[in-house]
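Supplementary Methods S3. Input chains for the assembly prediction are listed below.
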Amino acid sequence: DIQMTQSPSSLSASVGDRVTITCRASQGISNSLAWYQQKPEKAPKLLLYAASRLESGVPSRFSGSGSGTDYTLTINSLQPEDFATYYCQQYYRTPVTFGPGTKVEIK
Amino acid sequence: EVQLVQSGAEVKKPGESLKISCEGSGYTFTNYWIAWVRQMPGKGLEWMGIIYPGDSDTRYSPSFQGQVTISADKSISTAYLQWSSLKASDSAMYYCATTRSQWPNRFAPWGQGTLVTVSS
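Predicted structure tokens for the full assembly:
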């Protein structure tokens, strides 16, 4: 199985901050990477796919980059509604696997 | 609008059977895979398996093979996840989610989740 790691596991930030979350795969995944946002007691929501493509309806302050094994989710100008847990997912090979999550909390 | 609506929360005893459901609407149900994802309390997301309702092609994660059964009834646009004998460790939130085309792929949208509690 392809193992996914994320860093940091949690972070504290203020409204307006720029936040960067990193996701690393145990092998190359050819940009077959998605990012999800999950708020407490809610289902995950797709933010980006193919590493950098924004899902329809997702604000442009969210962006993604990376290649090979290393990928990044950036949130520019953090908004109050962005405080949540973020997961990466590789879909290069089955079983698809998720990272352990990064919790973004209010400073 | 593509939407997945899951059945309600369940409270069961160890050893009991259970079947939870996920009804799709707003799209051609037979054209998209539907996956099941487990989230244990306070934990991350785990892909369990997936079914293509068009021909019932079903794939399982090795971690869940033999532990659950995934099925679908395309006549009522509904996918199912079932257990024959629940364990306390099956207590979790279970989500269904669609993919867009070929498998493997990303998941969107997701159902609202079904909370399963297994306790004696």
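Residues 36 and 47 of chain A are 5 Å apart (CA to CA). Chain A is about 0% helix and 50% strand.
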